[in-house]
Design goal:
Length: about 300
């Protein structure tokens, strides 16, 4: 297949490009810059110049490919409503291009906010419905196109997609620990996070494109529940720092923006995904990655 990947130079996207190329697929990646285009072409992929606001580039990339993986997001925390509008328009442009073709379309989402009090399941629908909702309701929009001739699927990622070079939540926690001299956790540290190594996440995307039926939700989750205190303690050991419970009043000052998430249960099951696609995560665990020094750099 020729696969069009948005977010192709990002943390998950770059691993996905490598996975697809390694499996013998052709890749066309969306590139916003000369550096991004060069990185893709250096791997043997084709660079499609454009961005999420350039709907013509998205239509062209989707129209010239056999499958689409949508991983890009503007992540404009200061303008969430603009971010949501952009996401909705971008996804709709690609889906309209694919409508009636039965080609696969994989859309990224997270597991946070799906349910409370238990692990999220693949059968749990996203509560974000409609243009004014989180991410423009793009997951539900994509799955709706399963009835319009698109083999669409949602790939929901654990809050920690980890590995050496990660720039996500755990990196922010490590930076907060180095800055303050303490590896902190909120409250008693009993909040639960799921985790997946990025190579396992990339392999799930590739398997999904190749064989997942239309309309499914897939969970890129290798470890269902990692206590946040265990994450903080592993960072403390790796960084040579003490651990401490951080109270709600100090959370913003200590953690920064990641403090909003670190006290939340963000965990999910992937039992259905594993059974459906025979996906077997094989990468190191989050704690193993932390203790190996993946987050110890200055």
């Amino acid at each position: 297949m020729r696969v069009f990947v948005t977010g192709a130079t990002g943390w998950i996207g770059s691993a996905t490009v490598d996975e697809l190329l390694g499996a013998g697929h052709e890749v066309a990646g969306l590139a916003r810059s000369d550096a991004g285009a060069a990185a893709l072409e250096g791997k043997g992929a084709v660079a499609v110049r454009g961005n999420l606001d350039d709907l013509d580039s998205l239509r062209r990339g989707a129209g010239e490919s056999d499958a689409v993986v949508h991983l890009a997001n503007k992540h404009d925390w200061a303008n969430p409503s603009d971010n949501d509008r952009t996401e909705r328009a971008a996804v709709e442009a690609m889906l309209e291009t694919l409508a009636g073709s039965e080609r696969p379309f994989a859309i990224a989402n997270g597991i946070s906010g799906l349910v409370r009090g238990r692990a999220a399941l693949e059968s749990d629908p996203s509560p974000a419905v409609g243009p004014g909702s989180d991410r423009g309701g793009s997951e539900n929009l994509a799955l709706d196109y399963a009835s319009r001739g698109v083999r669409s699927m949602a790939v929901r990622f654990a809050p920690s997609v980890h590995g050496a070079g990660d720039w996500g939540f755990v990196t922010w926690l490590a930076e907060a620990a180095r800055r303050s001299g303490v590896s902190g956790y909120l409250g008693d540290g009993s909040a639960q996070w799921s985790a997946v190594h990025r190579t396992d996440a990339a392999r799930l995307i590739r398997i999904g494109l190749e064989s997942a039926p239309a309309g499914v939700r897939l969970h890129a989750v290798a470890e269902e529940s990692v206590p946040t205190r265990a994450i903080a303690e592993a960072l403390a050991e790796a960084l040579g720092l003490p651990t401490a419970s951080i109270g709600p009043a100090e959370a913003d000052a200590h953690f920064g923006v990641v403090g909003t998430f670190f006290g939340l249960d963000m965990h999910a099951s992937s039992a259905y995904t594993r059974e459906l696609l025979s996906w077997k995560p094989a990468g190191p665990t989050l704690i193993e990655d932390i203790l190996s020094g993946a987050y110890s750099g200055a």
